[in-house]
């Protein structure tokens, strides 16, 4: 491989904790496991941080659990930033609801570069249940994160089902688009997975799907979670015909690993069997998209 990137996508179960030390120990063990196998990019799922509600004992109260997790975001940042710097890796932490002010709560994913430098992304398209009863507001800013070895686009779950968001990220230079997710049912899981596969095809990029798995009876917001992590590619020469580079075992807690070649997808944009990235503007109705901002994490 001429420009390899080793990715680990989490199939992550939520845990009930007695205190912050238990949470830190769990995240540390997960990061050490992935980094020990050579992972350079580690992706945790949407609402992976909801397990923090158990520390305050407010998990069975929907809005109380949102308050509890939002209050602990500084601890989430401390733990993940230190681990990213310690291991020299990039980590997308499990997303969390964040109270930004009266009537303004967002679903935010934090990302930490290999020096511990921090960034974040607010989910743009809340699902129906996030809108009501969660009362989650959508973000408006698309971001690409430069981690030195690659440029990453970050979306969250439902976002990956809307093609223009990924297209804007690809136009801004994203080579890998991440889609951490939380889905209760297999229908939801397949919607996100299908979206991730389609976005890889359209934009000739790699996409990464990382879900929460298993039951969490202590957390009303995320009691039941279904999915399998996947790393996907455009279907073209040098890549799997079905576009599936790696796929986990359904609902089993694990890391799913794969090493991708970033130069290969770049080459396919110019010389592949199809050139969907190049030919996108020829579609009737295609037009300029809002630019995504590029942030350096190195």
Compact overview of the structure:
The protein is α/β, with parallel strands linked by helices. The protein has a single domain, classed as Nitrilase/N-carbamoyl-D-aminoacid amidohydrolase.
Q: Spans of 5+ residues with little confidence (pLDDT < 50)?
A: none
Which oligomerization state do the chains in this entry correspond to? single chain
The run of helices and strands is: EHEHHHEEEEHEEHEHEEEEEHHE
Overall average pLDDT: 97
- At the fourth level of CATH, the homologous superfamily is Carbon-nitrogen hydrolase
Q: What CATH architecture do you see?
A: 4-Layer Sandwich
Report the count of strand segments. 15
CATH topology description:
Nitrilase/N-carbamoyl-D-aminoacid amidohydrolase
Cα-to-Cα separation, first versus last residue: 23 Å
Rounded to an integer in angstroms, the radius of gyration calculated over CA atoms is 18 Å
Return the structural class: alpha/beta
Helix count, DSSP H or I runs of 4 or more residues: 9
